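Kindly inspect this one:
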Amino acid sequence: MRFPFLPVLFFLFSHYVSAQQTRLLDHNTLGWFTYNGDHKLSKRWDLHTEYQWRRTDFLQNWQQGLARLGATYTVNDRISVGGGYTSLITYPYGDYPEDAVMTFEHRAYEDLEISDQLGRVNLSHRFRLEQRWLSVGADENPRQIVDWEFQHRIRYQISGELPLQGQHIDNGEFYANFFAELFIGFGQNVGNDVFNQNRLSAGPGYQIRDNLKLELNYFNQIKQHATSEPTSNRPVYEINNGFRLNVVYNFDFTK
């Protein structure tokens, strides 16, 4: 299964966002340190663990902290399904922070992942549904959580790996990797946040051994704020650029 039109849609949609004249732009420099691990529990079941330490302002300040725990079931050699829980903390950052204080978010998620092959490129298409609970602070004291706002979001990600030293990625070899992901909000409470964000990332990777990889990527994020800037009532778009250092470690508990 192939989706050749989707990268084109990412490109066109990003340029559509860039063409809007009424927005306020908030440029930030990001550094994301991430860990991903899929640990085999049985022939078809994996335990997914993930942590992301997200920094801004040349790593000086917090942007977000994300922890994720889930399970994945392998249907066949091309299709897997999964789900789990995500905890997210967001700190005020940028020229137009969405919130003046630290906010919290809880999510449930469900995944469908389809593997594909395009020449020497190993492709993956991931469709993710998220149910989000976002903290709401009291007017007189925003740090005091008085409610949780419920939202839906759908995400599509295409990612790939290209061997650089042969037909396959072997231990002690470099490879190129990339991903592009689009986030769309829907349902009640979504407000202006229908186009939530998109991400583009690419760079080199190095396979130390079968279950351990390192990846250092250029990272771009365009993100729309859910509410307009209160003084001018203009929409705010973050234009974020930086790097993403990813550690992939997969452990086999069946051995």
Observations:
- Residues 180 and 200 are 5 Å apart (CA to CA).
- Residues 24-249 form a domain with the Porin fold (CATH 2.40.160.40).
